[in-house]
Each structure stands twice: as structure tokens, then as C-alpha cells.
């Protein structure tokens, strides 16, 4: 049973799934199962696997295929899965994307390759990839210049939307990028353009503001996905103040987890403490938490738990 493909109307929380390893750095497929079950239990709308937070560049091709097969099999069509296929090789992108779709993925996420400096170069790259993948594979554009070093202008994104119907989603992760989000929505509406789904990243750090500016949900990996799910549902119901009040209870821990360089280790350690994975190992090169880091995280988790208890949550 395959779920519907992602589309312009996709919304909610597409969790960016971590990739679990053992303490010795080997792929832990049993923890892939438990982590998948954890995310499903928290009510996520969909998954995004093999993204940057999923340490995809650190996996061998065999490991990439093993993770994809395991997660897609575990989910078994219950929710849509977007597969990250970004790679320096166009042929690798094409092969992985078509394999993912054959196995039941709902779409693919694609970031620009490095060293694209002009709007023309950015457009040409994505146009080439859209033609290579064909009209039947829905594409989520990943706009994450802090990591890719590539700036995707509003004009280029709108041109890609106009020219390629398979571009149905944007993972909005520019920083700061809220003005870009507003401009995308305003310029699209003013010109009568096709409206695509926009899901936001950056750990959810600006989620309330981004939802009010026209985002449709989140595509990020905060270790308390139930908050993202509940907050996005409240925004969707027009209950913005309630959504922001809930969000604010988690903000100290969310902000702490967002730290560049250390954030993935904090996220995986939190997932380990919540019983979702057996080891918090981050593949090298990657961050390692020290004793102070661990104690600090524990204090923030306990303070958050206390704040939730005080409000009967």
C-alpha cells in the first residue's frame, strides 16, 4: 500500500528522521524500527529520511539503500515518506530517486550542489534535475544556504514553480528567512501563480512566526515531535495564541537543541533518553557531548517536564 504522493496541499509535520548507529558507529536497523515507531506514535504527518540531519553524506550506498528499505517497510504506507536524494552526481540522484519511488516513497527532497553562484546557475541545476527525474516524481526544493552555500532567490524559486509542475514543496530553511517566506507567498498570490506547500526547518526555531506568514507546517527533527504536531494543528485551526503558548513551553530546549555544530548530538541524546534509539552516536566527523553538555541537557529536559506538569500537560 503506497500513500499519496506529496503535493501542493501537503501540510503538517514531516519529521526529519535521524539515522541511528551503534556505539561503535555501525548502522543500527533495529533502532531504525524503534525510532520510526516513536515518530508514528507522536502523530507525525510524514517522514523525511536521508536528509542532512540524517547524516546521509556519511552513509555508504549500501547503507543508504538499507535505511530506505527498512523505514519504508516499517511505515508500510501509513504516512508519506520524502527521501533526500541530494548528491554531487546527477546519475546518483536519478538512481536513488527512482529506487525510492519504486519502493513507495511519496517524493524526493533535493538541495542544490555547491558552487552555484548566480540565479541562472541555480535555475539551470534544478531544471536539469527536474527533467532528468521526470514529471511523475514530486520534488521538494531544499533551501538551506547555511549548509549548501547556495542562495536561492525568490525569483528563481517562483520560476521553477512556474516551469515544473513536479516542484510541489519547498523546505524553507534560509536564516534569516521570514521575509523570503512572505515574499514568496505575496508574489505568488499577486501573480495568480500555483501555490505550493512550504514546510519550515531550522529546528522549528521560528515556527509561530513562519506559520503566521503562510507556512503549511514543519519539516524538522526536534526531539519532541508531539509539540510540533500539536502546534501546527492549532495553527491550522486558527488558534494561533494557543499554539504559541504551547510552543513557548518547549522553547528553551528547542533553542538549546538548535545549536550549530552540537545540535545533532543533543537531538540524538534526547531521543536516546526518550527510548527511541539505543545509542546517541554521531558518525565522525561529528560532535561529541562532554559531561557538562550532558548535565546541561538533563537539566533543561527536567525543567521542561516540570513546566508541562504544572500546566497539566
UniProtKB/TrEMBL annotation:
GO terms for molecular function: 4-hydroxy-tetrahydrodipicolinate synthase activity. Pyruvate binds at residue 219. Keywords: Lyase, Plasmid. InterPro entries: Aldolase_TIM, DapA-like. It comes from the Bacteria. Pfam families: DHDPS (PF00701). One of its GO terms (cellular component) is cytosol. CDD domains: DHDPS-like. PANTHER family: 4-HYDROXY-2-OXOGLUTARATE ALDOLASE, MITOCHONDRIAL (PTHR12128:SF66), DIHYDRODIPICOLINATE SYNTHASE (PTHR12128). Belongs to the DapA family. This is Dihydrodipicolinate synthase family protein. It comes from Comamonas antarctica.
